[in-house]
Amino acid sequence: MIGVTFLKGKSVAVMGLGKSGTATARALLAGGAMLRAWDDDAATRSSAAASGIPVVDPLQNGHVAADLVVWSPGIPHTHPKPHPLAQAARAAGIPVVCDVALLARARPDARFVAVSGTNGKSTTTTLLAHLLAQSGRPTAAGGNLGTAALDLADLPEGGSIVLELSSYQLELSDGLGLKAAALLNITPDHLGRHGGMEGYIAAKRKLFDYLVPGGTAVVAVDDEPCRAIADELAGRGMRVVRISVLAALAQGVSAPDGVLLDNGVPVADLRRFPRLPGRHNWQNVCAAYAVARAEGVSPDAAIAALATYPGLAHRQELVAELNDVAWINDSKATNADATEKALVCHESIHWIVGGRPKEGGIDALAPYFPRIAHAYLIGESTEAFVRTLAGKVPYTCCGELGAAVELAWRQAKAGSVVLLSPACASWDQFKSFEHRGDVFREMVMALTGERAT
Q1: Catalytic-labelled residue, pool 19, 144, 185, 204
Q2: Does 3.30.540.10 match the CATH number of domain 5-97?
């Protein structure tokens, strides 16, 4: 836990008591703040109160009883409509921030670097942390990924903190000072939370507002919104390192054919790293390598570390090979663009898909339908996905994950792949994509009578 002592004696409200909110509440209590913690869900409030967190509504008769509001990013605060607490706080001039802003204030001596993008940010974050750690520097990684910001290890002075930042967090991270930041891609996602595509792009662009003077902006230039951002930053005189997996760059980092190029010079064949398959992972490598180089890691040290990267749980994670069938957990694929990255890597796919649908559904995945031997539909998206798949892909409406796993177990032939890559959010049936992936892993291991680890 990171100590938040600079708010000792101050009245602080925490809105949202999920993972990040709970970690924030505990850090504030440990630092001596006067805490009012709240969640709109009664069961969540009850659980927090039972754990010793003081649960008090900070909004009293339209007034906010706090000097600062720490907002859990998963809770809408502006779109689709303003939350009453956020609206009242802003009207009163009370700052509304997320836990990342507190972390930055609590650890001004740390070297902060960050990764964002619609897809690929978790792999890039863990990969970058691995490159930095293997170079010998104390490193911690978290934020939107895994460990909440204020639950990170308290590193020695000068340690590197690698943050995965969502568009929600980027709106509320005032005060964060980044030595380097990487933006991977921007495709439509979370549009309801940002009032449309323009608002979503603006939230992602805010990543670079947090760079310290002389900091490095690493920007993938394979989509139009990111190209425009790279050009705008360069036009302002900022240090920009462009990356691409579609073209070889004479200046920047690129890997159009799986060979990593540093300013046009080949430095590594990425096709020899089995934990980083496919073009999407080559982009992740380009970004992590570029940030690591900006942070002083030598090319040789960075390439050596790539060989020992263990991979990311829930992202094309090989759970088991049963009867010559590979069972792959890609639960982190919560939209079609993320699922595309898995479909392109496999043939003869028994595809478990569905959940709470995102904008655009799975229509964009039509070019990969010939790779799918059978689709197993689960969750709220079933009716919509039936309309997309009918007449194009054999499918079964399974309803729940367990039924899908059981049917895939009976139908998948040797040499095929059973792929959980839902292209949907998990919240209709699970607590999180991690929960969904863990349940899948347990079910698969149960097929062999082994215990999942």
Answers
A1: 144
A2: no
